[in-house]
Amino acid sequence: MNFEHTEERTMLSDGLRRLLGDVTDLKALARGDYGWSTDAWEKLAEMGVIGALFSEEDGGFGGAGFDLMVTFEEMGRAGAPEPLLEVVLAGGLIAALGADSQKEAIEAIIAGTTQVAFAHGEPGSRYDLARVSTQAEKTDDGWKLSGRKSVVTNGAEADLLVVSARTSGEVGDTDGISLFLVPKGTDGLDLRDYPLAGGGRGAEIEMTDVTLPADALLGEEGKAFEAIETANARATCALCAEALGLMETAKKLTMDYLGQRNQFGQPIGRFQALQFRMADMIVEVEQARSAVINLAGHLDDDRKDREIHVSATKQLVGQTVKMVVEESIQMHGGIGMTMEYDLGHFARRATMTEHRLGDALYHLGRFSRLRGAA
Ligand SMILES: Cc1cc2nc3c(=O)[nH]c(=O)nc-3n(C[C@H](O)[C@H](O)[C@H](O)COP(=O)(O)OP(=O)(O)OC[C@H]3O[C@@H](n4cnc5c(N)ncnc54)[C@H](O)[C@@H]3O)c2cc1C
Prior knowledge:
four-stranded antiparallel sheet, globular
């Protein structure tokens, strides 16, 4: 099997590494001065990075699993918090289900002028994609939405929200979930936003009789679950690649520290006790890399095969993140705990990747269920 990236992807990766190195202000992020940078966002759009997340058919020039992997690994390596994952989720759903008029939004998303967010998770839904209790009621000339969405990443910044709501069925049913396009500032939409650990912003969204026109419905009524699961699979691949990039940087900072910090007349990296720990970390990160490559190559499989790889990868990457973060901080000694040192930002952001889209324990159970039903 050839693991070399194509020339285009290598160029994307190199260009992105240089760009993000210039625009990501780790000290300001650690202080919580900003959630993400509009300047960085414009530059990402200019470089065509947002377009790399969509297929040619949808107006982009990529969209395959390995495009996601390359892009998000570099975002992770730089510790960049810009909301690209929301493009994969909300943008991906518009591309998958949208009518031609709805798909017009994709051009502005790729140009970087329209921000999007996917309002799906609710208080109590944990990681279960089918636990939607927000209600959508059909009216004479459209829809009326009521309910609450929780930790909607990029929710307050989004010009366009993709909101899930139940048009039939019970909470937990895969059938009966519909998606709606909700523009910023729609009456009845109450947003409360806050900074997230490791950068970015989240929002709690309360919807009370949000009135939408008939053409706000995205795709077929009650049949959105499959597309949500597919977008989620792609986003999980992206998030795991981001975690991989974050771990690569934590690993590098730790190796550098072991080579620089002298104790007992020599760099502490000369002591075998630390060499063993470092070697374990390197092996674990390589294993996580193999898992992400494997998932990127299986994103277009049939539903069940794809989801088995999604849960296996998220579980393994989640465990590796925990190990790498803990070991990096331990081996740094006291300095690893300080806000002034960059490792803290990578440790926080990597830890947060474990809490998004299902943690290791959740995916272990899901993997067993998917395998058990084979
Ligand atoms: C929040 C916090 C709470 C703490 N609580 C405690 C506590 O309750 N009790 C306590 O005893 N200490 C405590 N410490 C201190 C901690 O034990 C030291 O931070 C640790 O010994 C690392 O020292 P250092 O920061 O100088 O790092 P460095 O000396 O730079 O060491 C970095 C790494 O190298 C390892 N290392 C250094 N020299 C050698 C060597 N010769 N062989 C093998 N490995 C080596 C260190 O263990 C560490 O993993 C605490 C520190 C923090 C930040």
